[in-house]
Structure formats: C-alpha cells, structure tokens
Amino acid sequence: MTGRIIQGIGSFYTVESGGLRYVCKARGRFRKQKISPLVGDFVEFQPANSADGEGAIEEILPRSNELLRPPVANVDVIFVTVAAASPEPDLLLVDRLLVRAHRAGIEAKIIVNKVDLDNGMAEEIARQYGSAEYEVHCVSAKNGIGVEALRNAVQYKTIAFAGQSAVGKSSLLNALCPGLMLETGAVSRIERGRHTTRKAQLIPMQGGYLADTPGFSLLELDTMDPELLAGCYPEFTPYENRCRFLGCQHLNEPDCAVKDAVRQGLISRERLERYTMLHQELKEKWGKRYD
Ligand SMILES: Nc1nc2c(ncn2[C@@H]2O[C@H](COP(=O)(O)OP(=O)(O)OP(=O)(O)O)[C@@H](O)[C@H]2O)c(=O)[nH]1
Ligand SMILES: [Mg+2]
Ligand SMILES: [Zn+2]
C-alpha cells in the first residue's frame, strides 16, 4: 500500500492511507543506509496482519523537497511565522528561514500572529517583507483576525508552519481546524512551565495537510558560498543586473543598484542590513569549510 507519514514517535510512524491510519516501523535497512523517514514522506508500506501488531515501511518514495529544521518533507509552502509581540519578533530568524526555504525550493509566506497585541509592529513587519513581494498575513489566533482569509490560502496543499517558539503556530492550527486540540503554550497548572511542541506532525485539512512543527530560537544557515546569498532575496533580483560590477554583493561596492533602491525606499533598509550580517556570517563559515 502507499500512504503518507503524518507522525513519528521513536521508531514508530503513523502512516495515513485512504483516510485510515496505520502504525508502522521502518525496516532496519533504512538505518543501515542512514535514511530516516520524515513526516511528510510518501511511503510504500505493509500494514499489520493482526489488530495489535505493527506494519512496516518498505520504501520511501522520492522527495520533492526536505527540510531538516523543521524536519518535514514534500512541503508546498512554508508559513514563516512570527509574533507581533511576546516573544519580541526576531526578524533575523525570519530571514534565515526564508533563505533556507529558498535553498530547498519551497515557496514561503509570512504569517504575523498576535496582531491583537501590537498592530503597529505587525504593520512594520508587513512593510519590510511586502517590498520583497512576500505574501504577508497579519492574524490573531486569539481573536480570529485574518483566520478566515488564511484558511482560504491553505487548501489542497501541504503547508508547514515554522518559526520561533511561542509565536503561536499550534494555536493557529487550532484556529484553522475547529475541533483540533493541539496543546499550546498556555502555562499548565498540572505540569510546570509552558507546553511546547516537540514533534512535527501533519494534520489533514481541506484536501491538504498542515504541519505543526517544534519552534526554535536559534537557526544557523548551512555552509554555502556567500555569493549565492543575494539570490535568496527576491527583492534584489530586479536591480542586480544594474549594479556596476558583475557579481556585486551589494556590500561596499560603488554604484550598487540594490543600495540605490534602498535609498529610494524600494527595498527595506532593515532587510539589507540583516543581509549584510548573514553575508558576513557565511563568509566566515565558508572560509573555514575545509578545517
Ligand atoms: N495574545 C495572543 N496570544 C496568542 C495568540 N496566539 C497564541 N497565543 C499564545 O501564545 C502562547 C504560545 O502559543 P503556541 O501556539 O503554543 O506557540 P507555538 O509557536 O506553537 O510554540 P512552540 O510549540 O513552542 O514552538 C500561548 O500561550 C498562546 O495562548 C494570539 O493571536 N494572541
Ligand atoms: Mg507549538
Ligand atoms: Zn549591488
């Protein structure tokens, strides 16, 4: 049979096929080949032959893409999620996620949650990324602002929510899928501390899937040639061939059309500033790549 992995706990995977769920283990040879099944994988599997047994994943079908942070495969769109406040927005982390999505060949959209707390900041974030022609959705999982519009954007696709911890990814999934009751970060009275998502999982919805994923606070870019970074900024593209130097990195070169566009307010200054930081970071890593 063929199906899709929607959840993985330890060495057990939940495979969905034809609306039913099957618990399966991965064959030992995957471990020998150092392949681990990912949530989102399409697989061939052998269902259990008794009610209490488990099935076996026989084959992982070729992936159209994969992310390791967060760990999901075959994603159509990644919803890079940030909160307008609480936690304070980390836009460098947003930019890192956008670069990673671009490198993995996955379309990205920006979701600004918690607009009920700070609408001014939500507008500021929309301004910075709007000029990059990213689609920006300002929403509130708490009072429902923008949730209906977001629901219309999620049909028939596999969409992964990704972003900093506590921005409200699980809360947004709950708002989008009535009846779903994912645990969210409200401080629990029974356990101490707040609840946090620990595993990626896919939730079937409107003919597609939504992926909830664990949040993080740190994210490094993989080692890559820093000269490829500018190509991950869609708002730079229309200007690049107007820079004086071929291969201009838009740092300190004279007659740089990207920096001109920033001066004219066509590209966000903050995006270029953070680009410069990421470029520097990649340059250091790239220099040490043979160490
Ligand atoms: N004011 C406000 N609070 C929200 C909103 N959405 C979520 N929260 C709160 O933010 C906290 C974190 O929400 P979660 O949904 O658990 O966040 P998460 O992004 O899934 O966090 P991780 O699983 O740790 O990555 C919870 O206390 C939510 O109640 C919102 O739109 N407005
Ligand atoms: Mg969560
Ligand atoms: Zn330039």
Task: Furnish the topology, listing elements before pairings.
Elements: E1 2-9, E2 12-17, E3 20-26, H1 28-32, E4 42-46, E5 55-60, E6 66-68, E7 71-73, E8 77-83, H2 91-104, E9 107-113, H3 119-130, E10 136-138, H4 147-152, E11 158-163, H5 169-176, E12 201-205, E13 208-212, H6 237-240, H7 257-263, H8 269-287
Parallel strand pairs: 3-5, 8-9, 8-11, 9-10, 11-13
Antiparallel strand pairs: 1-2, 1-4, 2-3, 4-5, 6-7, 12-13
Helix pairs in contact: 2-8
The protein binds guanosine-5'-triphosphate, magnesium ion and zinc ion (ZN).
Short description:
The protein is an alpha/beta fold and 291 residues long. The protein is 26% helix and 24% strand. The chain has three domains: 2-62, Beta Barrel (OB fold (Dihydrolipoamide Acetyltransferase, E2P)), CATH 2.40.50; 67-212, P-loop containing nucleotide triphosphate hydrolases (Rossmann fold, 3-Layer(aba) Sandwich), CATH 3.40.50; 226-287, Probable gtpase engc, domain 3 (Ribonucleotide Reductase Protein R1, domain 1).
Describe this structure in words.
- With about 290 residues, the protein is an alpha/beta fold.
- It folds into three domains: about 60 residues, Nucleic acid-binding proteins (OB fold (Dihydrolipoamide Acetyltransferase, E2P), Beta Barrel), CATH 2.40.50.140; about 150 residues, 3-Layer(aba) Sandwich (Rossmann fold), CATH 3.40.50.300; about 60 residues, Ribonucleotide Reductase Protein R1, domain 1, CATH 1.10.40.
- About 25% of the residues lie in helices and about 25% in strands.
- The chain is built from eight helices and 13 strands.
- The radius of gyration is 21 Å and the shape is globular.
- The mean pLDDT is about 95.
- Magnesium ion binds next to helix 5.
